[in-house]
Amino acid sequence: MVGRKPGRENDREIILLNPMGMAIDDIACARAVLRRAEESGAGTVLPLF
After folding, report:
1. Residues 27, 30, 34, 36: is their CA dihedral positive or negative?
2. DSSP character string of 23-43
3. pLDDT, tens digit, 9 for 90 and up, residues 1-49
4. What is the rounded distance in angstroms from the CA atom of residue 46 to the CA atom of residue 19?
């Protein structure tokens, strides 16, 4: 489907973005990344409080 229609045809057209995602997806991905980092000993734990 890519290339069948241009994203914008002139400068008056705008692109709308809704940056609101699914927070639960973000948390699940972060947990998986953290688990892999811990298993491999990568990264540095920083005190947040």
Report:
1. positive
2. HHHHHHHHHHHHHHHHHHT-S
3. 677 887 888 999 998 877 777 888 889 999 999 999 999 999 998 998 8
4. 28
> pLDDT tens digits for 18-29?
777 788 888 999
Torsion from C-alpha of 28, 29, 35, 38, nearest 10 degrees: -140
Round the CA-based radius of gyration of the chain to a whole number and report it: 20
Which single residue is written with the structure tokens 């699940």? 28
